[in-house]
Each structure stands twice: as C-alpha cells, then as structure tokens.
Design a protein that fits this description.
The chain has about 280 residues and is of the alpha+beta class. The protein is built from eight helices and nine strands. It has one domain: Transferase(Phosphotransferase), domain 1 (Orthogonal Bundle), CATH 1.10.510. A five-stranded antiparallel beta sheet has the order 1-2-3-5-4. The protein has a two-stranded antiparallel sheet with strand order 6-9. A two-stranded antiparallel ribbon has the order 7-8.
C-alpha cells in the first residue's frame, strides 16, 4: 500500500522498509503492519487530541512527573506550546511505560523505537502467525475464563510491583497470542503513588471480573483489588505473592452500582474507540 504521510519519516530514517497494510483504525491511534528487515512489526500512529475520544482526565494525569517547570506551566494552559507538550507527555507515557513493564517481565508488546510520534512495536501473533485477536473477539469456555482471569490478576500484580496501574485494563486491551495473553494500550497508565490510583486499579480488576465472569459467573464474587492493594500498601506485595481473592472489609461498603456504571461507560467508550477494521 501507499505509505501514509505519518510513516514517511520512519521510512526515510530506514526504521521501516515498507507498509504492508492497516491493522486497526481506532479513535486514538491507527496501527499499521510494516516490514522491518523481513520481519512484520506494528507501527502505532497517535492521533491528535481533536481526533480522538480519550481525554486526559485528571484521574489519569495526577501524579505524573513533568520534565520541567516551564512544561508544567504550559500544560496547565491552553497555548499552542502547552497543547504540544500535553500531546508529547501523553505519547511518552505509553512509550516509557512499555519499556518499564517489559523490563519488569509484564507481558506487553516489545517496544522497538519511537520516532516522530510513531511507536514501533513487535507484532503480537496468534498460532497462525497472524495478528493476535483481542479477548473481546474471543469466545471463552468457563475453564479458559478462570485460567485467563488468574493470569491477568498476576499481570496486574506484576504491574503494580513495578509502580504502574494500567488505567483501562479490559478485554479490549488484552490480546490472545499464540503463547498467552499480552496487555496493550497504555497511554492512560497512572503511577501507583497517585492519590486516585487504588480507585483506578479497582476499576481495572472489576472490568476483568465482569468480562471473565460472563463465562465463569463465580469470578464476579472475587475481591482481589482490595486484597492486593492492602499488601502493596503494607510493602508485602511481590509478583509471586499468594492471593485468595477474598477481603474482609470493615470499612464502609463501596458504591458498587456507581463503579459498575463507570465500567459500562468505559466499555461503551472502548467499543467506539476500537470500532474499525483489524
């Protein structure tokens, strides 16, 4: 296919040889299959803010480290420079988080390069060597749902041990690869030290429980988030910490209805973002 304008700089810099085709056209980014020295990779082209649905809500940006005071002041305003810095910070969050999580052993696509607003990644493949499907496109048995849920809980723990909360961990952001599950899409990741990090972490796990619970209903009654967070807060959480999925909460009960309403809203937004050809 003809090389899209946003990918021409990578071709001129010899980072890619050719564009094979478009894998996904979402509301936040477009993903292309590209060939690099005979190997198929993915090139994620971020869209400008006015062309995507995800907005940098305070709950996601709180606690992020800004590189210097001038950038911080500019990002608080709405100047051209400030908007440019916000875009750069949004894109860099995913790039930096991918490198961090890959080093921590979390199953994420291996980042290869970031150039001119385009993220070059390994292509996550299925058993036939084709691009792996999202979990949202996979029909699971009860046995698979239970096993995959435990895998995702362990990955969430590994991310938290690395100081990261995904921020939108759901069936839309997990791929079923030939060798297991792979977590994708991290521009909304938050630092685990942010004041609202637990609320976001809890929503992530509730989203997973809601999805896997469709195939194995007992999953919906688990309470991993509070158990994991208490261990994390007390400095006792490790990637291999044994978990029960139970938590005796003596505090005021959370408004589950409100949390589930947020999950439904997030799922509707995700459907809009990911609608398009694969």
């Amino acid at each position: 296919m003809k090389t899209p304008a946003r990918l021409l700089p990578l071709q001129h810099a010899d980072l890619i040889d050719e564009v094979v085709g478009q894998l996904q056209s979402g509301k936040e980014a477009e993903v292309y299959l590209v060939r690099v020295e005979g190997v198929i990779r993915c090139a994620k082209v971020y869209k400008e803010a006015n062309h995507r649905t995800f907005t940098q809500k305070t709950q996601y940006t709180e606690g992020r480290k800004i590189r210097n005071s001038r950038q911080a002041r500019a990002m608080e305003g709405n100047s051209k420079y400030g908007r440019k810095e916000r875009e750069s910070e949004w894109q860099n969050t995913e790039v930096e988080t991918l490198y961090l999580l890959a080093a921590a052993g979390v199953r994420v696509p291996q980042p290869l390069a970031f150039y001119e607003g385009v993220l070059l990644l390994e292509m996550v493949a299925d058993q036939d060597g084709d691009p792996a499907p999202r979990l949202s496109d996979v029909v699971l048995t009860a046995v698979q749902a239970r096993a995959y849920f435990q895998v995702m809980i362990r990955e969430a723990v590994r991310m938290l041990c690395a100081g990261i909360v995904h921020g939108d961990l759901s069936e839309f952001n997990v791929l079923k690869a030939h060798d297991g599950l792979v977590i994708i899409d991290l521009p909304q990741a938050v630092q685990a030290t942010a004041n609202n990090a637990f609320a976001i972490f809890e929503r992530d796990l509730l989203q997973l429980a809601a999805f896997f619970g469709r195939s194995a209903p007992e999953i919906k009654s688990t309470n991993y988030a509070k158990e994991i967070w208490q261990l994390y807060r007390n400095g006792k959480l490790r990637p291999d910490t044994q978990l029960t999925g139970k938590f005796a909460d003596s505090s005021k009960n959370a408004d589950v209805g409100e949390v589930m309403a947020e999950i439904d809203e997030a799922r509707a937004e995700a459907l809009m973002r990911h609608r398009g050809p694969r």
